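User: Show me sequence and structure for the first protein, then do the same for the second.

Assistant: Starting with the first protein.
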Amino acid sequence: MLSIKLLPETLVRYHRAITPKRVWNVAKVAASYALSNVFRRDIRMGKPFVLMVEPTNFCNLKCPLCPSGNGDMTRTRGMMPYEHFKRVFEQQADHLLLLMLWNQGEPFINKRLTDMIRLAARHNVPTLTSTNVHYIKDRETARDIVDSGLSELVVSLDGVTPESYVKYRVGGNFDRVLKGIRLLVQAKRDLQKSQPLLHLQFIIMKHNEGEIEAARQLARDLEVDRLSLKTAQVYTESDAESFLPSEEKFSRYDYDADHLSTKGKISNTCRLLWYSTVINWDGAVSPCCFDKDVHYGLGDALGEADFDRIWTGEKYAAFRNAILKDRASVPICNNCSEGVKGMFYDIEKVAP
């Protein structure tokens, strides 16, 4: 999910999406969130203004900390048909300030991804997606992405050499990733486009924590727009031992704790539940992207004629009320970075 730290900057960058209707909706959402925290119960006004849609939960890589790649995901695999996307998106388009086209899996495995982006662009909704870059193989594909109207593209590159890259991006090809990024940069030049903003993401882990300065240089060499130095999410003590960096400042976890825990105390609130929602490839609605296997399913967006019935329904209200009462009692919240400092070690603009 988009970090709350990035949301204001994103909205400023794509200010053309701001309409009186959308501003009024944001005001209602903000008021309902504030009132919910005062009265400690779910109060509903407005609609989600950030929507995450999962094009697919298939992935071509075997990243050991990713449920989609490492085989831990138990839910059915599949791809969202374009017609289903159109249906769930257009129910919410008038209120959206941002559409995020990813969750689990590699979005570009869905061959209709750029058609989804084009539909959002026609509704003047900014779009972000994320990729491991392996499906950006040629000039035509890169030009299609740039021409689609995509606002921002996160490209994952967690190493500065082929050897360090494949320690986490198992099954990946370092040189293919570099080629794909360069194809995108060239396509932007050829089409004289300033978007999509290219956002290189470097997850800091034990095997690459000494490569941060080299990652900054690589970002400059590749001529991307932004570099994110992101902390790793782990699930077990074994994962922590294998992947967490030795320097605690590069981690979102408390190294002094008796068990694996995020830094800081979890507060009994969560902004995500008031301003955003997640619709998975099959229409299943999740409270957020940390619900990897939809253990907290809140409804079926394809089974309802109006998403409002889910957004204001009993399941969503019960989940928000549970968070307001005791967030720590909800298992997915105990490995969540929302409201906890340290998800990103740094987010930097890349100087030419």
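Switching to the second protein now.
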Amino acid sequence: MTDQEYTYNIEHSRLDNGFPSRGSIEVIVGSMFSGKTEELLRRVRRAIFAKLRVEVFKPNIDTRYSIEDIVSHDQNNLAATPVESPMNILLLSSDAQVVAIDEAQFFDERIIDVVQELADSGSRVIISGLDMDFQRTPFGPMPALMAIADTVTKVHAVCVSCGAPAMYSHRLLSDKKQVVLGEKKEYEPLCRHCFLALSQKGA
């Protein structure tokens, strides 16, 4: 089903309280520079065009481009509410028909129950985040969010070494902490073959 068809369906299946009769969870995952946020922004803008009530959230630790906006690597942006806790999302989105959450890997496990509750209450929930960290380990709550999702979209970057589809975020720093905010100076997308080749060299 296309976004346009989905929007049409929810516009014509409202309950008396104004919410769609059936909520949903859409998860968008991939490596850094794969277009996750671009895809989230595209879906959100279509919902806004359809005059749906939309709330957009981001973790408050993500201040790379902006404190209050969601900004893609291509510098496209949309106003968002930075929150510290997933529970704040519930408090601030009670009237929303569409709830969008960017960089969900930075939230704790409570985001899973929050998203489930929103969808069960009739909201369309759109989530984007890194599915793996720089060591190829599943990142935070993302595996569980993928498991409870109605749909999962996995997008790919382009490997900077060979041009193949890339699914890994290779860290260019020696810092071993799981969460290190950064951009092109700190990370590069690599395919499986090139990631393993670098690992074998001790990079």
